[in-house]
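Dear Dr. K.,

Following up on our conversation at the group meeting, I've run the structure prediction for DsrE/DsrF-like family protein from Candidatus Methanoperedens nitratireducens. I'm pasting the input sequence below exactly as I used it, so you can double-check it against your construct before we proceed with anything downstream. Let me know if the numbering doesn't match what you have in your notebook.
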Amino acid sequence: MIKVAIVVLADTETYGDMARVHNALLAVKEFKDANDEFKLIFDGAGTKWVKELSKQDHMFHELFDSVKDKSTGVCSFCAGGFGVKECAVESHISLSEEYEGHPSFRELIAEGYQIITF
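The predicted structure tokens came back this morning:
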């Protein structure tokens, strides 16, 4: 069975950033459609996407909503730093804080996940 963690690090500032988050969401959809085990993690400046993608009028909201589930997480430390922690909680997105307030990539690798970053 395939196990993958898609990590969004891209900021929300440029068209290139928007393309990266779109590619990340499409990759998650592909793994989800194939019934693979996946995690979608927003980390660093990528945590700002949680607020953007939660907006009903965002062009990727529907795609985000279709892949968002219990395996979606946001770095707790970074969400706090970028001011989106409250939005993540309101959007029912788990706060990942396994290692000093951040997601544990070591733990993911130990569990057999391949990590892809965008």
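Two things stood out to me. Residues 3-117 form a domain with the Hypothetical Protein Ychn; Chain: A, fold (CATH 3.40.1260.10). The first helix runs from residue 15 to 33.

Best regards,
J.T.
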